[in-house]
Amino acid sequence: MGLPEPPALGASALPKDSFAGETVVVTGGGTGLGKAIALEFARLGASVAIWSRNDEHRVAGVAAVESVGARAFEFAADIRQPETVAAAFDATEAELALPGTLVNNAAGNFPVPAEDMSPNAWRTVVDIVLNGTFICSREFGRRHIAAGTPGSIVNIGASYAWTGGPGFAHSAAAKAGVKNMTETLAVEWAPYGIRVNGLVPGLFPHEDEVEAIRGVPERGRQEDTRAPAGRVGQPRELGWAATFLASRYASYVTGHTMVVDGANWQRRAMLMPEFEPIREQLGKGRFEL
């Protein structure tokens, strides 16, 4: 039977105006799960700033937010650049208000065996996922500490931060860093009223998945059977979790990482299936220098 389906799109466990008068930033909020998160904040009354390097993505994020009657703002931000991030905060504050919530969702990822990975590929993913998350968090924290105002950060993680991720050494290492940083900043910034939590999605297929991820062998086939829940997640379920973590109803929750994956990452078989090296899983030939 598996886990029941969630309430319909548009439902929420929080009161309708939980984020009325507040500004929320979602990095990479124009596509996929980032857009789903932005949409749920918008439904609860927030003004939402969409930060992304991609023009089309920003337009899509703004359209989604405005479709539910909320105010939207977009900024072309490369989160790897501290000066650009500072400018994004300046512009968002001038247009809307000092963001009270920051969702660090922007990421880069693609499958590749470690021996095939170029130094530039490693640097690029780590720079976006780990460094970018810190740069945005640092700027957010500094502004709230200086202003004496509370705030909330939600960092999007990954379960292979705990388990390792064959084929994703760059992203797994970066997400492990994000998890540790979440816990560290939660302790450092709690005295200032700033909460820092993590949110880990499971299998949430969506139309904006990049080709590199969509092309992983077996992706898209019988996905409902790949989790103990008997189904994949719906993007709105991640949005609901994000809004709860950022809300005043979670005001005593900080330093926590919430996993929303139908218990998939904890599953174990009595006898593990036959091992297949990652090169073979990805259809790679014999490695040669």
Give a verbal description of the structure.
This protein is of the alpha/beta class and 289 residues long. The chain has one domain: NAD(P)-binding Rossmann-like Domain (Rossmann fold, 3-Layer(aba) Sandwich). The protein is built from nine helices and seven strands. It has helices at residues 32-43, 55-66, 82-95, 119-147, 160-163, 169-189, 211-214, 235-246, 278-281; strands at residues 23-27, 47-52, 72-76, 101-104, 151-156, 194-201, 257-260. The protein has a seven-stranded parallel beta sheet, with helices on both faces. Strand 4, helix 4 (119-147) and strand 5 form a beta-alpha-beta unit. Helix 1 (32-43) packs parallel to helix 2, helix 1 (32-43) packs across helix 8 and helix 3 crosses helix 4. It is globular and about 55 Å long. The N and C termini lie far apart (49 Å).
Radius of gyration: 19 Å
Q: Could you give the order of the helices and strands?
A: EHEHEHEHEHHEHHEH
Number of strands: 7
From the coordinates shown, what is the CATH architecture?
Answer: 3-Layer(aba) Sandwich
CATH fold description? Rossmann fold
Helix content: 25-40%
* Helix count from the secondary structure assignment: 9
Structural class computed from helices and strand pairing: alpha/beta
Write down the overall mean pLDDT: 94
What would you give as the CATH superfamily? NAD(P)-binding Rossmann-like Domain
Distance between the termini: 49 Å
Major β-sheet profile: 7 strands, parallel
The backbone outline, from C-alpha atoms, is globular
- CATH class reads Alpha Beta
Number of domains: 1
* Uncertain regions spanning at least 5 consecutive residues: none
